[in-house]
Amino acid sequence: MLLVRSPSASGVPCGPATPFGxxxxxxxxxxxxxxxxxxxxxxxxxxxxxxxxESFELGGHKLYVSASVGISVYPVDGREPxxxxxxxxxxxxxxxxxxxxxxxxxxxQMNERAVARMRIEADLRGALExxxxxxxxxxxxxxASGEISxxxxxxxxxxxxxxxxxxxxxISILEDTGLIVPIGExxxxxxxxxxxxxxxxxxxxxxxxxxxxxxxxxxxxxMK
Length: 224
Description:
The structure is a single chain. The protein is of the alpha/beta class. The chain folds into 2 domains: about 1-110, Reverse transcriptase/Diguanylate cyclase domain (Alpha-Beta Plaits, 2-Layer Sandwich), CATH 3.30.70; about 120-224, EAL domain (TIM Barrel). The protein is about 35% helix and about 20% strand. The protein contains 6 helices and 10 strands, in the order H-E-E-H-E-E-E-H-E-H-E-E-H-H-E-E. It has helices at about 1-10, 40-50, 80-95, 110-125, 170-175, 180-200; strands spanning about 20-25, 25-30, 55-60, 60-65, 70, 100-105, 135-140, 150-155, 210, 220-224. The strands form 4 sheets. Strands 7-8-9-10 form a 4-stranded mixed β-sheet, with helices on one face. It has a two-stranded antiparallel ribbon with strand order 1-2. A hairpin with a 6-residue loop joins strand 7 (about 135-140) and strand 8. Helix 3 (about 80-95) packs across helix 4.
C-alpha cells in the first residue's frame, strides 16, 4: 500500500509526458522531458525528497520513509536508455552514502566509486564464513566508582592481506545488500557467548552494547 501511495504523494505529475515506473524492490524511475535547464531536474528531485519525508497514514499508524535520488542527463551522461539508467543508479547510491533524503547528479568520477563499492560488496559476500569479522570490546567506566559498568562491542572487518576496515566503509553496503541480517545475528551470538565467559569468571560485567545496526531498526542493539 505504501508503494502504491508513494508516486502520488511525491508530487510528480505522472502521465505520458512524465513516465513513472517501478524498477523493482524500492527503486523507481522518473523520466523528465523538455526541461528548460538541467538544474530543473534537481528541483523536481528535491520536491520528491521533501514530499516523501512527510508521514504516511496506513492502518492507523504513521510511517516515515526517506528517498535518495540519482539524476543522469541526456545526452551528457549517456545517449542510450540503459546508460542513463545505470548512471542514475550510480548517482543514487552516492546520494545514499551522503546520508539519504537527498539527491545527486551523476558525475563521471562516480564510476570509480561504484567499481570500488562493487569490489567491497564482492569481498563482503562470504566474509562471515571466512571468519573475517572481529569484535573489539571498549570498556565503559563509571566515573563515580571507577569501576567498569559495561562494554561496547565494535565491529571490524579484516579482509585477507589488508588492513583493518572500519564500519563507515562497509556498514552501508551490508545494509543495502541485506548482509547486515546474518552478520547482526553473528554479532548478537558472539557477544552473548563473551558475556557468558565473563560471567563464568565472576567479572560482574552484565551489560553490553553492540554498534552493529539491525536492518529493521537502524539502532544499536542493547543487551543486559
